[in-house]
Amino acid sequence: MDIEKNINSIFSSVDHKGTYNRWMILRSFFIKLLFFNIK
């Protein structure tokens, strides 16, 4: 999935800045949205 790759790339770049936890929350939120859209 392209969206997954985009999230992962943003996630990786932000990880270096120390805002890892915030992006973990956003990432799980986006994944939940994707699941709701599929169903």
Which sequence of SSEs, written as H and E, runs from N to C?
HH
Number of domains: 1
Q: Mean of the pLDDT scores? A: 73
Distance between the termini: 16 Å
Q: Which spans have pLDDT < 50 for at least 5 consecutive residues? A: none
Q: What is the count of DSSP helices, taking H or I runs of 4+ residues? A: 2
| Strand element count | 0
Judged by helices, strands and strand pairing, the structural class is: mainly alpha
Strand content: under 5%
Quaternary structure state of the chains depicted: single chain
User: How big is the Rg?
Assistant: 11 Å
Describe what this molecule looks like in 3D.
The protein is mainly alpha-helical. The chain has one domain. It is 85% helix and 0% strand. The chain has helices at residues 2-15, 20-38. Helix 1 packs antiparallel against helix 2. It is flat and about 30 Å long. The model has no long low-confidence stretch (mean pLDDT 73).
